[in-house]
Amino acid sequence: MKNLIVSGISLCLLQSSNSFSIVPSFKPHALTRSSTSSRFRTEIGPTKQVIADLTDENVALRNELIRKDAIIEGLLSTLQATAMTTQVDAIHHVTPLTDLVNVAKEACDAVTPMLQAFYEKIAENKDGGSAKLKNDATYFTIADGIVQHMFIEHLLSGGKFAQIVGEEDESEINITTKPYMVDDLVVPDEFNGIIETTLSKLKALAKKIDDTAHRQLTVFVDPIDGTREFATGHGEYVTILLGFNDPTGHPVAGMMYRPLTEPCYWAGGAASEDCKLGLLDMAETPHPKGMLVTDGKVSPFLSQLIDELGYERINSVASGNRAMMLLEGKGGAYIRDTGGFAKWDTSAANAVLEAYGGCMAKLPAFLEDRTLESYTHLKTTKNLDFNPNQVHLTLSNAKDKSQWMKGVDVLVTDVTTIKEYSCCQGLVALDKECMDDLPAIHDAMLKVKSEGLWSKPVFT
């Protein structure tokens, strides 16, 4: 008999005629030979496989600990930012989240004329310097930077919230001294007047936000969701997204707003206060059996799921617009296993869909047992929803793009490889009218998944 310690676990190898069997052993000896045996033989293959399996398990456990540490880090950061202030004036703030939704709506109203002015200019001369290409292959416009700057630095600032996360956090904005600048782009002088007017409105609105009522909330801001559509003259798909999240990262209030339609359609809400507000462009003929799909490639899993359910494919673009389409009856479900979207896309949408009686949840937990688990929306340096050996590395989710190679499929084991705000666990989103279809959707997913390798979801 031979004892072997692997990763802190003692294994006992029992000699048989040709090989060794494996049974648990708790003796502290590292490597001994039975006193009654002068020779023994082993088949190296099975032993190496045991070691490899245990090593893989240790790697998975290590990454799970890293992920949980990151969640704790995010929670501690949020709690620290609250400055330990939790008192709310019960008389003036009976419905603090509803008050916040209303201010968010007014803020979107305030920036709309400025956005429309930029949109008209870009549509007329989209190659005239008002837009540039970011490294992640999405258009960035002057409007993105200015709107986010106004929201974060002037509307939401002053320590009223625990943390604020914006899509354009890396941008450098100057609307204090002329010429106004967004990174290396000079804002045309013709926009100076409307920028100053808009800024004045947002500063006034900031006074409506209570200094203490929301200090435990983390805000996610997407100043222009659908930037490519904004920059290419398809403004009807553009939304402003403002999402407010509790200390655990769950969305509790939100605003989705289309600034470039006539009239401006919008939806806001907070489920805990039974707040459901909005002006929606309702479908003349509802499509409860319509599956909203992106303008990109549909995965084999989703394609077969649509066929199994007998749903109709409904083309759609931009995350915020897609969530509003659910509320408008233009589709019944929005499901995906592939990524390409981020948490500033899901924060507001999740909160509003829940306020309207629908849902937005990560795909793996739903696939497992129909659990509706939202993404974790907190300020962080590590992805709080990452699962090792499940996510495939892509150009859109790689933190270091040099690690991605076209045509090479890589399963990620290290959370630090993935962008901190990438949504890499897929998505299940339904309108209230279709919530009763969840069991049938789950059953169809399991059937499709069981049919073969190419039918399984590929999380990115």
From TrEMBL:
<feature type="binding site">
    <location>
        <position position="225"/>
    </location>
    <ligand>
        <name>Mg(2+)</name>
    </ligand>
</feature>
<dbReference type="InterPro" id="IPR000760">
    <property type="entry name" value="Inositol_monophosphatase-like"/>
</dbReference>
<feature type="binding site">
    <location>
        <position position="345"/>
    </location>
    <ligand>
        <name>Mg(2+)</name>
    </ligand>
</feature>
<feature type="binding site">
    <location>
        <position position="224"/>
    </location>
    <ligand>
        <name>Mg(2+)</name>
    </ligand>
</feature>
<dbReference type="InterPro" id="IPR050725">
    <property type="entry name" value="CysQ/Inositol_MonoPase"/>
</dbReference>
<keyword id="KW-0479">Metal-binding</keyword>
<feature type="signal peptide">
    <location>
        <begin position="1"/>
        <end position="19"/>
    </location>
</feature>
<feature type="binding site">
    <location>
        <position position="167"/>
    </location>
    <ligand>
        <name>Mg(2+)</name>
    </ligand>
</feature>
<protein>
    <recommendedName>
        <fullName>3'(2'),5'-bisphosphate nucleotidase</fullName>
        <ecNumber>3.1.3.7</ecNumber>
    </recommendedName>
</protein>
<dbReference type="GO" id="GO:0008441">
    <property type="term" value="F:3'(2'),5'-bisphosphate nucleotidase activity"/>
</dbReference>
<keyword id="KW-0732">Signal</keyword>
<feature type="binding site">
    <location>
        <position position="222"/>
    </location>
    <ligand>
        <name>Mg(2+)</name>
    </ligand>
</feature>
<dbReference type="GO" id="GO:0046872">
    <property type="term" value="F:metal ion binding"/>
</dbReference>
<comment type="similarity">
    <text>Belongs to the inositol monophosphatase superfamily.</text>
</comment>
<dbReference type="Pfam" id="PF00459">
    <property type="entry name" value="Inositol_P"/>
</dbReference>
<keyword id="KW-0460">Magnesium</keyword>
